[in-house]
Each structure stands twice: as structure tokens, then as C-alpha cells.
Amino acid sequence: MDQPSNSIYRQASWILERARAHHGLAQVDLDQFWKDQALASTDPFGLSIPQVPLGILMSGECVYDELGIPEDYWRYEQDEAWRLDLHRRYNDLSEEVVGRRLLSETPIDPSRCYPPIKGLHDVFEARNVWHDRSWWLQPAASNERELEALLDRAEARDLRAFLLPENWDAEKRRLRALGVSPPLYRSQRGPVTFAMSVYGVENLIFLIQDNPSLAARFRDAILSAMLGIARVLDEEAGLTPQTSPRGFYFLDDNCCLLTPRMYERFAYPILEGVFSAYSPSPGDLRGQHSDSAMGHLLPLLGSLGLTSVNFGPTLRVDQIRRHCPLAVIDGQLAPFTFSRNDEEGILLEVLRDLEAARPARGLRLSTAGSINNGSRLTGLRLIMSAIQHFGRYP
After folding, report:
1. Strand order through the sheet with 187-189
2. N or C, where is the chain less crowded by C-beta within 10 Å?
3. CA separation (Å) from 146 to 67, 156, 197, 206, 214?
4. What mean pLDDT do residues 58-78 have?
């Protein structure tokens, strides 16, 4: 990280000294913090909010280290009773340390769930497989001939017939009678990450460079399919373009692998097309998550009028703000600083961001990426202490 100022070092030392004097727990007035958090969360840009809002409410990945049990991500996904028991045990700790029960303890009622709907990856025949503690899309084409054939099939699909299962109409009638609305499509693995999953990382880079017409066809097919999926699901929910909820959010870690010129030719038109359809007004959600070193793309992304961003830890709040003046910035604490429980490092990064956010506001103090196992409740309490003492607005 950048060299902290002397004032930031002093603030971090002040918080740590008081934490060590109180059995490792940072000084926080928990009742007051959560009252102020409720106000601050209404609008991170708000002129009357008391403090920078907190965006770190932990994740299910954090249960293992906190509870001292081995990681088992597959069982966590498949065994609901086990998962909810872990959540209850974790929440008993979180209530004591930070004053809130942070993870959901509500079981899913299968009778109130719609049957599975196919997604964009199914349109492009990319299988989703479990590997190394997560789901990964597998390539569906390995050369230009295979890609052309894949695009032929994807472009020819009747999306409604393809996406919806056979029992859809009956289940929709039953669930609508119970007051359960069909799901909408307002978030997607970003175009670079998606295309690299379908066709391969190097393959896509060479395609954009060497065969721009086929790359453009691939790009346009992705955009058309995305708009088609959103339209089908809106219609199933009884929505029109006039009544459809606004906003769309992309998650595109791999965008960092393209140069600005390549990104502008391949990915930018997809974001622009989707945002034009679903985020046409200045206040609508235009979001992007990219927890990678993608600072070279900031000017392009900024020209899209983003209103919500979660970018990688190599970027800084003031750097993002220059290019994204309207965006709520979720960041910029490095996830590995948090998950290594580096208490001094956590405070130095958080205090750096609080200082940088003060002139323009609009920061929601979060990790610059995912919240991983090893991230501790005592570390979260340190962050809360930093906000309460040094992240207040005049």
C-alpha cells in the first residue's frame, strides 16, 4: 500500500492500544454505531449522514476459521441443516463481538421456489462444474470453427422455449397464487470473464486482435442473448419496458486482461447496450465488480456513468472517484489484508480510505473484492472502531 501519513499511523496506534487494553476488542459504542450505520446506509453521498457506512457484513466463508473447523465448501452448499447450524454458532459470536447476527439463519422453503431456469452460459453451452471449492464454467469452443458453429446454435435458439423448464407454466400459476414473483435477470458474469470462460483466455485475446469480425459477432450474440433473457423473464413476471425495475450489475474480474482498445471493441458495447435498456436514467444502478488490477480501464468504465463499483485493491478511492464521480465505491480494503487478520494493515488501509473519501463522500467501507475465510470478527470490530472515531462527517 501507499506510505501512510503520520496522522494515519497515530490513529491506527490509538485504536490498537485501546483494543489491547480491552482483551483485544477495539473500542466501539455498538448501539451508537448501528444507529449511525442505519442512517449512513441510506445514502453514502448524503450530506446529513453521520459517518462512512460499513459494507462488510461478512460471508459464509468466514465460519471455518472463526469456529475452528475444517473448510468444507461442498457440504456448505449441499447440506442446509449443517450450514444453518454453522450460521447460528457464528452469529452467537458475532452478536457478542460486533452487536449483530450477520449470517442468515432462515431455511429455504423449496415449495416457494421456482424451478431452475437456464442461464446465459447454457445458451452458449458452457457447463458449470464444481472444482477446487467453487463453480467454474468450462469452455464450449476451442477454435474459430467451433466458435462459429456455437454461435450458429446460440443465435438460432427460441429463448423462452430454451430457458424455461417443462413445468414452468404450472409452477408459475401455483407460485403467483402464493404471492411469489418469478425471478428477474439483473446481474451477470461480465462479458470478458464470460467470453473467456466460453472460449478461453488466450483464444479470446487473439480473436479480438486477429479476427475482429468474428469477435464482433461473438460480442453481439452475448448482448442479444442477455437482452433476450431479461425480456423473457420480465414478460413472465408480467412486466413491460415501462414497468420493469431499473438497474443491472456486472461481475467481470477478467476485464483486466484486455487492453483499453480491446475492451472498447469487445466488452464496452455490451455494457452500454444493457445499461441503455435497463439503466437509462442517471440515478439507475449501473454496477461493476472487478477485483483485479484493471485501473487501465477506469476512463472507459467511467464514461459509462457507473453508479456502483467494487474494484480491485490496486486502485485507490481518489483514483476511482476521478473517473466515477457518481459511483458509490465499495472498497478499498484488500481482501487478503482482512483475511490474514493483519490488524495494523487493516487499520492503515481503512484509515487511508476514510481520509480519501471525506471530500466527496460516496464510500461504503468494504473489501476490494470478496470476503474470505480468515477474516475475523475482531478485525471487523477494528474497522467499526476506525469508522466511529475517524470516519465521521462534520
Report:
1. 187-189, 248-251, 286-290, 308-311, 328-333, 363-367
2. C
3. 48, 16, 15, 15, 12
4. 95
